[in-house]
Structure of Osmoprotectant transport system permease protein:
Amino acid sequence: MGVIDRTWTWLTTGAHWSGTDGVWHRLGEHLFLTAVCLLISCAIALPIAVVLGHLGKGGALAVNISNAGRAVPTFAVLVLLLLSPLGSHGSWPTVIALVLFAIPPLLTNAYVGMREVDRDMVEAARGMGMTGRQVMARVELPLAFPLIVTGVRSAAVQVVATTTLAALPGGGGLGRIITAGFRLTDTAQVVAGALLVAVLALLVEGVFILVQRLLDPLRRPGAA
């Protein structure tokens, strides 16, 4: 029996989906960790990027610093955090590593989106008597929304894929299925785990594309 057949057999075996080591439980852990890391990353990166993009000051430096972080592998950051005093604090090393990994696309896209707003529109809004906060909320953010959501979508997909690393220090998530497959030398289980992560990443991307279309301020009635 080939790897594909054995992988299909593994995925269609009910025992592999139930229990604390089953797919549904690991999927819940994976989604929870992804959501926590993404929310923390958005809370840190988006306000900074939006304000810097609105002011037009310091943004290039912030973006360059965040992009420099991409050169450092997430696994290396995770190992260093595990060796530090934080290593004894449960999932925090994994959360910090994933947050640092998610910040660059969030910060870059949000800043670029704010800076690419037509300056003539901004000046026209100010000429109408809008305050800086009103210009940011009513003009710049709606126009920058597509790029901002693209950054969030990119970060979400990357975090979903990279959350598998949480299994290495003993954390939860779909990565545990893969690591268990390596430990048991079960190639079908390894492939099944990787396939589940890939499908989840595609589903997350699809959800964010749908959310972007539904929530885009410029698509709503009266947006003009």
User: Anything to note?
Assistant: The chain is about 75% helix and 0% strand. The longest helix spans residues 23-55.
